[in-house]
Write a structure and sequence with these properties.
- The structure holds two protein chains of two kinds.
- Chain A has three helices and no strands.
- By secondary structure, chain A is mainly alpha-helical.
- Chain A has a domain of 39 residues.
- Chain A is elongated and about 40 Å long.
- Chain B is mainly α.
- Chain B has one domain.
- In chain B, helix 1 packs across helix 3 and helix 5 runs antiparallel to helix 6.
- Chain B is flat and about 70 Å long.
- The chains are: A mainly alpha, B mainly alpha.
- At the A-B interface, helix 2 and helix 3 of A face helix 1, helix 3, helix 4, helix 5 and helix 7 of B.
Chain lengths: 56, 232
């Protein structure tokens, strides 16, 4: 019974975990690649150039 | 499901990111440091006298803080990529596609095209000191191009008919036909040889990095699935 309930709920929310992971991943990429706050920009500078992000 | 995505994404991203960071520090960073000598005016090109092509450059970890931060940020960036990839792998597997270290190689190539090559085709990887358009405009174009290329890669891989291939081709071509933001004038002091080498190295290391990332993500995705099954 418990197993059934778990399986049903897992299938029902199957898209949500993927969606949340995509949002989290894109959030990290935006932070390391795009945000122009100077501390972030300076720390990520070399990586942004080497990874093909527009830097400055 | 979420913990499987998170775990495989974190493992794959951290491992591929670390290897990539070391490859970048060895192959890309010296070219960047060389360019910065021109950006800062320590070396001047187009003068009357020839300039040495082999100035003394600081080695790997000569600036530990700078290179250490680069390692951390590369690992973070590739973890971001890996989370997106693992999430999409979960969707593809649900649709009946096999995900493992071998098919992951193709996922990696598609990721490289999406996040690195498609935007880089018109916004070439730039060394410091080159002329470029406003950074905000370039970021918008970069984001749209990456989104279009990502959808195109999915359509090519899983669309399964001619129409989806045609739509994918259109999505891949459109941003470049519209064109990326370009500088109004050229003012970069960096020799073209350095700029060309930088772009080539950035793309080459980028491709290696993404193929590793895809394969690792496929491997950990499968391994985490088996582990969860065994635990259930």
């Amino acid at each position: 019974m418990t197993t059934k309930t778990l399986k049903a709920s897992a299938a029902g929310t199957s898209v949500l975990p993927a969606l949340f992971a995509v949002v989290l991943g894109l959030g990290i990429i935006t932070l390391t690649g795009h945000v122009q706050a100077s501390a972030l920009h300076d720390a990520a500078h070399d990586v942004r150039h080497a990874t093909g992000f527009p830097c400055h | 499901m979420f913990s499987r995505i998170l775990t495989s994404g974190l493992f794959a991203g951290a491992a591929a990111g670390l290897i990539t960071a070391l490859l970048q520090l060895y192959f890309v960073q010296p070219v960047l440091l060389h360019a910065e000598l021109y950006e800062g005016g320590e070396l001047v090109h187009f003068g009357a006298d020839p300039v040495t092509a082999h100035p003394d450059l600081p080695g790997m970890f000569a600036e530990p803080m700078r290179d250490g931060l680069s390692i951390i940020f590369t690992m973070l960036t590739y973890t971001g990529y890996a989370l997106v990839m693992a999430a999409l792998m979960s969707v593809a597997e649900r649709q009946g596609h096999e995900i493992n270290a071998r098919t992951g190689l193709l996922w990696g190539l598609a990721g490289f095209i999406t996040f690195h090559f498609a935007p880089g085709l018109s916004l070439a990887p730039e060394v410091p000191g080159v002329a470029a358009a406003d950074v905000g405009a370039r970021q918008i174009w970069w984001t749209i191009t990456v989104a279009a290329a990502g959808v195109a890669m999915w359509l090519i891989a899983f669309g399964g008919n001619l129409v989806s291939i045609l739509i994918a081709a259109l999505l891949l071509l459109a941003p470049h036909i519209v064109g990326a933001p370009e500088p109004e004038s050229f003012s970069g002091p960096v020799p073209t040889e350095i700029g060309a080498l930088f772009a080539a190295r950035a793309f080459g290391i980028g491709m290696a990095a993404w193929v590793l990332l895809g394969s690792f993500a496929g491997y950990f995705w499968q391994a985490e699935g088996k582990r969860a099954e065994a635990a259930a």
